[in-house]
Write a structure and sequence with these properties.
Elements (H helix, E strand, L loop, with lengths): L1 H14 L13 E6 L4 H20 L4 E6 H6 L11 E3 L7 H9 L4 E3 L20 E5 L1 E2 L10 H4 L4 E2 L2 H13 L4 E5 L7 E2 L2 E2 H9 L6 E5 L8 H9 L6 E3 L7 H6 L6 H14 L4 E8 L6 H14 L3 E6 L17 H24 L5 E9 L6 E6 L4 E5 L8 E9 L3 E11 L12
Parallel strand pairs: 1-2, 2-3, 3-4, 5-8, 8-11, 12-13, 13-14, 17-19
Antiparallel strand pairs: 6-7, 9-10, 15-16, 15-18, 16-17, 18-19
The chain binds S-adenosyl-L-homocysteine and iron/sulfur cluster (SF4).
The site of iron/sulfur cluster has 10 residues, from helix 5.
């Protein structure tokens, strides 16, 4: 979401005569777009600001701006130690050019008002050409899970218009992008008149059938049957759902204000798996929420073993000021939180390894993204179910589809060799496992 927001900011600045540079020595302004979801996300930003201060000494006149959720949370406090010149929250990016102009004359500025309507619908984000793009379809969150700072830093839910989103996707298709991920904290809250998120997905998918469409995230309380049907029916909507469960204990889910039970989640997952053959489902887990006992933790472990997710992101609970859970005693020791996260991660790795091993000998279709991190002789791509696949590079180009026969794997990555020709033009069958 912050990548998408940074592209919106880039669009605003480029329209005002600025240009992007990746070389800090060349920059008149350094903007850092921040996350406040957990304490360690903020600590990383403080580290980064320390680094920028050395550049500020070397290049006098260079401005530093903090954008995003941490700006919204800490406001003018961020100006205190003199490292930062501009502080701008997620709904005030249109003010950046004016704030920057004033900051160049020495006047530091803060803009952190939240809006009920701002959705940057009319702006063109500054996106690099490439294979994949992020696209925010709604902003804010009204769910108020008790652990979560997002409703405070990003404000109330509001959606963009279906028409503007479809127009943007059309432009991206013309520019040759091959995969679009629609973003929202809870995409099922998307509304434009009588259109809901399922309508939006179907309209976006119809723009170009050779383009893959993904989305994130659905809240388990209101993932609709219509959305499940849309994923099942539309050939180019990826068969992948990220569905954060957070805990396997009903007591903890209640304290988190997640508004669903473990059994609701279980039944939802079964419905999704039945309706969408071959679907992959991943989740988020928080370990060490206030009062989480060893038996609550065991319930989470048992649920993971039972439901066999295709992926899980596990976080140590981090108290966030202003949230309801902040008032609860953070009484699971850090070390114990770490142990619980470790146990869940180990279990999930073992499950993922078993699932990946089953794919050995089969061919999977991937969208080729480019060079792998480890070697320029190898390329990487992802399956429709979001599995990473690495293979020796021959004549494939980023943005093409290729079938890769899997010959080995670990818990995170599949490895194989290409079989058959690359698929360059529009393809009707973008399915997961090809043979
Ligand atoms: N809107 C999404 C989640 C966005 S935040 C949803 O509800 O599905 C991404 C993940 O960060 C959450 O799913 C949760 O697992 C984690 N998270 C949020 N606040 C947290 C906190 N205070 N401590 C630890 N993890 C947190
Ligand atoms: Fe946070 Fe809950 Fe909203 Fe997700 S749904 S952003 S976890 S408040």
């Amino acid at each position: 979401m912050n990548v998408a927001d940074s592209e919106v900011v880039g669009g605003i600045l480029c329209a005002n005569g600025y240009a992007l540079t990746r070389d800090i020595a060349e920059a008149d302004v350094v903007l850092v777009n921040t996350c406040a979801i957990r304490e360690n996300a903020e600590q990383r930003i403080y580290g980064r600001l320390g680094l920028f201060s050395t550049y500020k000494r070397r290049y006098p006149g260079m401005l530093v701006g903090v954008l995003g959720c941490m700006a919204e949370r800490l406001r003018s406090n961020l100006l205190e130690d003199g490292l930062v010149d501009i502080v701008v929250g997620p709904d005030e990016y249109r003010k950046l050019p004016g704030l920057m102009e004033r900051a160049f004359t020495g006047e530091r500025g803060v803009a952190v008002r939240l809006s009920r309507v701002e959705n940057y619908d009319d702006l063109t984000p500054a996106r690099a050409d490439g294979v994949c793009a992020w696209l925010s379809v709604m902003r804010g969150c009204d769910k108020f899970c008790t652990f979560c700072v997002v409703p405070f830093t990003r404000g109330r839910e509001r959606s963009r218009s279906l028409e503007s989103i479809v127009a943007e996707v059309r432009d991206l298709a013309v520019r040759g992008l091959r995969e679009i991920t629609l973003l929202g904290q809870n995409v099922n809250s998307f509304r434009d008149g009588h259109y809901d998120f399922a309508d939006l997905m179907r309209n976006v998918a119809a723009v170009d059938r050779s383009m893959r469409i993904r989305f994130t995230t659905s809240h388990p309380q209101d993932m609709s049957e219509r959305l499940i049907e849309a994923i099942a029916e539309e050939v180019n909507i990826c068969k992948y759902v990220h569905l954060p469960v957070q805990s396997g204990s009903d007591r903890i889910l209640g304290l988190m204000n997640r508004t669903y039970s473990v059994d609701h989640y279980r039944r939802l997952m079964h419905r999704i798996r039945k309706a969408i053959p071959g679907v992959a489902i991943s989740t988020d887990i928080i370990s060490g929420f206030p009062s989480e006992s060893v038996s609550d933790h065991r319930m989470t472990v048992d649920l993971i073993r039972e439901l066999r997710f295709d992926g899980a992101f596990t976080f140590k609970y981090s108290p966030r000021e202003g949230t309801k859970a902040w008032e609860m005693e953070d009484n699971v020791p850090e070390e114990e939180k770490g142990r619980r996260v470790w146990e869940i991660t180990e279990l999930q790795h073992a499950i993922a390894l078993e699932q990946n091993t089953e794919l050995i000998g089969t061919a999977v279709r991937v969208l080729v993204e480019g060079q792998s991190k480890k070697s320029r002789y190898e390329y990487t791509g992802r399956t429709d179910t979001n599995r990473s696949v690495v293979f020796p590079h021959s004549d494939e180009q980023p943005g093409e589809f290729a079938d890769i026969r899997i010959d080995r794997t670990n818990s995170a990555t599949l490895f194989g060799i290409r079989v058959g020709d690359v698929i360059r033009a529009a393809s009707q069958s973008l399915g997961g496992t090809a043979a």
